[in-house]
Amino acid sequence: MPKGRSGIITEEFKGKENTAYHDVEKLFKIYRSVNWKMQIMINQVKRHFQLEYGTDVDKFLDSLYQAGMDVDMDLASEKERVESINHSNKFLKLMDESVDLMRKYHPQGERYYWVLYYSYMSAYKAENVEEILDKLEPHCPQLTRVHRTTYFRWRDQAFEAVGSILWGCEGECKKMMKQFSEEFQEV
Fold this sequence. Notes:
Layout: H1 24-53, H2 57-67, H3 71-74, H4 76-105, H5 109-121, H6 129-136, H7 148-166, H8 171-183
Helix pairs in contact: 1-4, 4-5, 4-7, 4-8, 5-6, 5-7
């Protein structure tokens, strides 16, 4: 078995740095799916609370706290669903914050933001690259038309910019991103 850069023997090492846990493109590919699933789970929890307790979640939790009840004990049946929502929300928030940082401070941040937004982050999934290029036109008035090669170059540069923000995170962030890349593989 070959040796990795860290000196640890791995089967996956092929002479380059192992990037299995730093695949920004995979994370963006699951972004829309995670967001959609989270919205469904939130809606289910809200509906369940409305049917079960005759009130919305916030009012219910306020009444529990005011009555001094133990939320963990009283909401045991909803705990797994709420934890899943919280976990997904942390993933989305981390991605959103990284993209916002890139948008605000990177020299090409605004351009890269729109490339990532229309490609991966908007609720509407474009049918093809041409549709994304059409949506980018208003954001690039200096160009008559954004070419496909330019789009792919900007997209790769945006991945690199966001990746440099993400992988500068603490170990917990890396662990969370690894877990999401494994759990939400797009089929």
